[in-house]
Amino acid sequence: MQLSSEIITASAQAIQTTGSHLFWSEQTNTSLKTSLEEVGQTTPILVQETETGLELISGFARVMILKELGKPVLVRLVERLTDMEKGLLYLIENTHRLQDDGMKLKALRYFRTFTSEKEIRQTVLHRLGIKPKSKDAKLFMTWLELPENWQSHLTAGRIPLAAGTIIAKMNDSDRHAVEQLFTNYSWSRSNAVNVLTWLFETSKMTAHSIANIMNTTHMDTMMGLTLSPKDTIARLVSTAKKARYPELTSRQKSYAETSAKLVAGTKWQLEQPDNFETNEAELTLRIKNSQQLKTALHDLEDMVTRPEWEILWTIGTSHD
């Protein structure tokens, strides 16, 4: 892979900009346009000569902006490149760009079309800031084997990288059922992994399809309600957890209702600290002066005699 020292001027219209190695070409840069208008082009783009004309190797945004401005383009010629070399040179030229997981997957999809996973691990991953033997590397390799419609959710930022492991375990029918969760919502890592894991595990435990579980728990209809995305996701997460852990969810609800009565009108917070492995309770308090402390201690004395304590002690074992 050699760069020529020859720099020429070419018409922006004459440069082919449709190569698949330009995998981040849809990204725009408004500040670059301002710079090109005020100062002009200071760095040439990279092109190679082909039988059909000049093919762009790197510099898509500059070409598009200069074409819009009706200005010629400074280009530096490179020797004829293989598909691998095109992709690698494009990566090298774009190392300054912040890369999210979606961008990294787009790059890997390009290389995967003509080379092996082994070659990608050896040659490509480190250029994307991914350690070849890391958990992220394994996750990206998993995503490359998933259907393109799922890959599009990752590149669009609607689903986190970590969700790939559980999605890969699902059959096509189950993947189809859960895909609606990610069509119109962007999920955090923990929420996405939890919901998918709970649905998958519930399906295995009950021998029911995920579509059936989502239907019977009304998860599918929740997405049609006029709720904010945040509230919708919160409901979906809560429902999936309840389906997976019905006993625990029931206890948590009873505990929350009872503890709320116990601490009503005080600054005390009351929680069950260990998912009901014991019947212990945890009281916490946040205060900012001595008067609040005195009031809290007085409240605590009053709380001791409340009858809800006996109910609280038994919630953890009442369903055994």
UniProtKB/TrEMBL annotation:
InterPro entries: Chromosome_partition/occlusion, ParB/Sulfiredoxin_sf. SUPFAM superfamilies: ParB/Sulfiredoxin. GO terms for biological process: chromosome segregation. This is Uncharacterized protein. GO terms for cellular component: chromosome.
